[in-house]
Specification:
This protein is mainly α and 94 residues long. It contains four helices and no strands.
């Protein structure tokens, strides 16, 4: 039951955060937030933590939902601005 340990999720969040710094594509930050929030839930969650920790599929769905919410929030905060258009002013072959 390694997946039910809070520090495993926090270590995963740290690893995903470091990966985001190495691959700056705004790709892994939502997953890092989801893993961090899952770890905090397992640490401080009480009954919810016991219910989640009892089943790997429940825990993975919880992580996926938190990751999606985190990614959408980050996209809203720092993503593409409304009406922003990319204008190409030179060719790649120039």
């Amino acid at each position: 039951m390694m997946w039910a340990l809070w520090w495993v999720w926090m270590a995963a969040a740290l690893a995903l955060g470091i990966l985001e710094m190495l691959v700056p594509a705004f790709l892994f930050l939502g997953f890092a937030l989801g893993a961090g929030l899952t770890g905090l839930t397992l640490l401080f969650g009480g009954g919810l933590a016991l219910w989640l920790g009892a089943s790997l599929p429940r825990l993975l769905v919880y992580f996926a939902v938190l990751s999606l919410i985190g990614w959408l929030a980050l996209r809203k905060a720092v993503g593409v601005r409304h009406g922003q258009v990319k204008i190409w002013d030179r060719d790649i072959n120039d």
